[in-house]
Fold arginine--tRNA ligase.
Amino acid sequence: MSIEKLAKQVEGLTFEAIADKYPNCHPEINPFDLYRAHLANVLSGITGVDSSIIYPNLAWTLSLDKGDLTLAAPALRIKGKKPDQLAELAKEWAEMFPDNDPLVAKPIVVNYFLSFYIRGAPLIQSLIPAIRESGAEYGRNKYLGLKDPKDPSKGQKRIIVEFSSPNIAKPFHAGHLRSTIIGGFIANLYEGAGWDVVRINYLGDWGKQYGLLALAFEKYGDEEALKKDPINHLFQLYVRINSEMTAEKEDIEKRKAAGEDTTELEKNSLDEQARGYFKKMTDRDEAALAQWKRFRDLSITRYKDTYARLNIHFDDYSGESQVSEDEMDKIGKEMEEKGICKEDKGAMLVNFQELIPGKEGKRLEKPIVRKKDGTALYLTRDISELLNRHEKYHFDKMIYVVASAQDLHLKQLFKIIELLGHKDIADKCQHINFGLVLGMSTRKGTVKFLDDILKDVADKMHETMRKNDDKYSQVADPEATADTLGISSVMVQDMSGKRINNYTFNMDAMTSFEGDTGPYLQYAHARVSSIRRKAGLSDEEIASADLSLLIEPHAVNIVRLLAQWPDTVQNTLKTLEPTTVLTYLFKMTHALSSSYDQLQVVGSERELMKARMALYDAAHTVLGNGMRLIGLSPVER
Ligand code: ARG
């Protein structure tokens, strides 16, 4: 417990005392918790304000030159003071701050803001060993997911993250790509925070179109092709039968217009046959179900391979097909009894406008939950599925990672659950939405499948790598590296902005080694790894380094950033924005790259070499932890 060394610098500052005093305070894993607690204690003595008010108001700064923590005097709610009086007060407080505080320098005052700068030496000497000890654990916080933080025996909270959710036999579009990337990240984030995470993929795998697909397979299916590449084969069949169906419909329309009797044609149309086939499926006809299950299973097997390349796995492949008709009937009746839905021209619909007065009701529109012919809809399935998941998993929280195009759908869903009398369950659900990807196409045309995107980006990456012969020859398996870098390119580009923003899929920009890109991040990681290889120091040598030799401002700044990592992760749990993590990682890589000339390892005197190596090793750990959190596989070369 190396961070404890820091606490020992201050009399009376113990982990136990502050953990009890401040909420969610875990100084043994988050150094900033210690600094906040210490500052709150000291400032309370100076200002007379209760430390519990000061603690949560010690805020982050945007960059290190603004300090490590800042406090705005108005946040302390001192009555009857105008802004200029508060600025005066801030100045007085700063003067009263002890010169010889062991952890933090005397604050700098700008207007009514106090900026605090952490002292370098004690932080360096405690944090570098702490990161060494924690390794992959540094940044994780198992307490946050406990049902009762004071009593771990009560167990973890459970969260369901539903994401990716593509549709079988249809293209894997940008919405699915983003859901996969963002969802994988959110699942990792909660896992790191000690939650029990269940990852669910809710496939689009039910409906009349799957009856049509089965017909297409009967007509043109090829066993070999299905086994070899189910996703592509099913897609091709689907495209083919759909165009046939469209042609047929047009033909019927034409004949009708010419006064011909088309009853017989319509009865035998593909559309009717598909309806019939799907009816067999809903009636649980064994042969029909078995065929459909084969399509589904083969597709899932293939999806799994692709997800594995993105370091993603699912605990459950659920899907629209898994929702039982009986249950939907039951809930339909319940909705009717409770006056939530009403008949309208033979269909059942939820008239939110009547149920909820005002703007909210209007905005929720009038979704149908049962068609005239008795079939259930996307929304109907979601209602049943949600309640089922609650039964099955007793979740404390559930997140749906779905494009913002479905904002209304999810609002309707949560509202219906609430109207059914399950406000408690609705309150546990959250929709995490995201914007569009514009112009997503590969060089071979529009994107159809995730594999195509990854393949194309990997090819492009390979080209870029080839441009540097010297470095290219050092990479052991260029194909595999190009693949990893390609995946990083796509993921980093996706996570660079706020989720809700649209972005343009730009193959050249994302695969560049310049700018804040995936390849640059990988390069930065590989570069710290290479220092370690070149230095040729043993673990013991690095562990026993004399860290008091690290006095340069560059070294101090790197460690100040390293100290922010656990807090960054904790903050990301509030924003659920991958960009919060990425921004941090790029700050880190920039600090590293500007330090290399100042803090040389190879070529320095032995003791200095060890100390600097220990610093870079800690940075390597944190970069790697961050990259893995967002779903990347850090490369060493
Ligand atoms: N398969 C759907 C689509 O492609 C996404 C599913 C989202 N999840 C849900 N529970 N409705 O649009």
Notes: Residues 56 and 549 are 34 Å apart (CA to CA). The longest strand covers residues 196-203. The domain at 4-118 is CATH 3.30.1360.70 (Gyrase A; domain 2). The chain is about 55% helix and 10% strand.
